[in-house]
Amino acid sequence: AVLPSLGHYVLFNLSARDGLRIGDEVQVYRSRAEPKGDDGPTLPEVAIANAQVVRVTPYGATARVTSQQQPAIRKGEHVRVTARMP
Q: What is the pLDDT of residues 20-53, one digit of tens each?
């Protein structure tokens, strides 16, 4: 499978019901991971990529990847809105 990169489109489940609009910027990130046992460190949150929303429906949204810090966009990553269009 080819991982999405710059210029590729990604789909996610934030939607118009969540207040998302075309032009909003989102960040794809991997959340902080607690250690499984007593041994091992807590892994910090990792920013993976930024994207701009190009389509919003009542069921989900599509965004185009505009910058990428890690080559690791995979199914199940977390997304948060970082900038809103007026």
A: 999 999 999 998 887 777 777 778 889 999 999 9
The H or E element spanning position 68 is strand 61-68
Look at the block and give the residue holding tokens 């609009």.
Answer: 21
Q: Is 77:14 a contact under the CB 8 Å cutoff?
A: no
**CA geometry: angle 73, 21, 50, nearest 5 deg:** 25
How far is Cα 77 from Cα 41, in angstroms, rounded to an integer? 21
| φ/ψ (deg, to 5) at 69 | -95, -30
Tell me how crowded residue 25 is: count the other CB atoms within 10 A of its CB: 16
The neighbour count for residue 81, using CB atoms within 10 Å, is 15
Q: Residue 2: is it exposed, middle or buried by C-beta count within 10 angstroms (0-12/13-18/19+)?
A: exposed
Quick one: how far is CA 42 from the chain centroid? 21
